[in-house]
Amino acid sequence: MKNKPLKIATCCLASTLLTAVPAYNVMAAPVAGFSEYASAIVGSELNTSSTSAGVSKTVTGYLEKNLASKMLEAAQNNSKEQAEATKEKTAEKTADKAKANKKSNENQLSKDKTDYANMAVAQVNDYVNIRKKPNENAQLLGKLYSDSVAEVIRKKGDWYKIRSGSVTGYVKGDYIVVGDEELVKSVGVQIAKVNTTTLKVRSKASKKSEVLTLVPDGEELTVASMKAYNDGWVKVAVEGGKGFVSTDYVDITREYTYAESRAEEEARLAIEQARAEAEEAARRAQEQADAAASGTSSYSDSSSSGTDTASQSVSSSGQSVVNYASQFLGNPYVYGGSSLTNGTDCSGFVMSVYAHFGVSLPHSSSALRGSGYGVSYSSMQPGDIVCYDGHVAIYAGGNTVIHASNPADGIKYTSPANYRPVVAVRRIF
Fold it and tell me: Which of 385, 394, 398 is nearest to 424 (CA)?
C-alpha cells in the first residue's frame, strides 16, 4: 500500500506531460514562458523540487528544439517566397520592357508603311533644284540629290511642294517619283540602334547560339533582313559578316539621304576649298624641302619660315595620319579598347590615331559617320575615314584601308577598300 501514492503521482505526471506538450503547438509565447509554465505544472503535481527541475529541463529542451525548428522553417519559407517574388518582379520588368520595345518597333514600322504614299524620291543624274516658288525662275533654296527622299506637302500643277532636311520648297514633278513604296525602301537604310549596355550578336536567331561579337549601347547597325522579326530577331551587318540580334534590345528605324540647303552647300564647298589650298601649299613646301635636301637650291630665312609653316600643314595631312597609324600594325584588337599598343576596337583605333593630331572624335563607328564632312568614294584620299556597317577604317591610299579588324587579325591593312559595302566616307583635314 506504500507504493500507491507513487503510482498516483506517476500517473499524474504522465497526464501532465501529455497535456502540456501538445499545448505548445497552439501557443505563441516565448520559449522561456513555456519552460516556466511547464515547470510550474510538473512541480505542483509532483510537489518535489528535484523532480520538477528534471522534468522542466526535459520539457524546455523539447520546446526549444521544436520552436527553433519551426522558426528556421518559417525563415526559409519566407526567404524562398521573397526570392521568388523578386525573380517574378524582375521577369515582369524585363517582359514589360521587351513588350514596350517591340510595340515601339511595330509602331515605327507601321508608320513607315503609311508614310510611303507621301514620300518622294529624286530620280536624276545628279540633283534637282528646290525653289521658293513653283517656277524655274524662282529663288534657289537648295538641291535634292539623286535617291534623296522628301515629304510631299502638296501638288501644284507640274510642281510638288516638298520638305527634305532643312529645306522646304518646290521641285518639278518630272524629276521625282512619288508614292513608290519599293523605291523608297530601296534608297533607305534600316537601322537597329542598340538600347542596352552590351548587345550580343549571335550566329543564329536563338539565345543559345554562338556569340559573334558584342556591340555597345547607342551603336547603330544596318539591318540586313527582317525575315526573323516576328520571332523576335533581326539580321544585322557586323564586322566579319552578318548575325542576329534580339529586337528586345534595339530600336529599329529607317534612315534616308535628304536635301542640302544653299547655306549647307556653301559651308561644305568652303571647307573643301580650304583643304585643297592647304594641300597645294603642303605639296609645294614638300617639293622645296626635297630640293633643299638634295642641295639643288638655297633658301633665305623667310623661305625657311615659310617651309616650317607648310611642314606643319604636311604633318596634319591625311598621309601623316596614315603614316602614324601604320606604326601599330599587328597590335591586338580588343572590344571597347582604345589603346593603340595594348588593344583597341575599330572606332577606338580611328579615335586614338586622330587624337595624336589634336582631333577629338567619338568612340563609335556610327557616330563617326557624322564627323568631318562627306566625300565620294571615288575621290577618297589618304586619311579619310571609311565607314561600313558597324565598322570603320582609315583609307591608306592604293585602294587599301588600315583598321583594327577583328580579334583574330588585330590592326592590319585590307584591300580593296570596298571589301565590304561602304556606307560613307568622311574627311577630317
Answer: 385
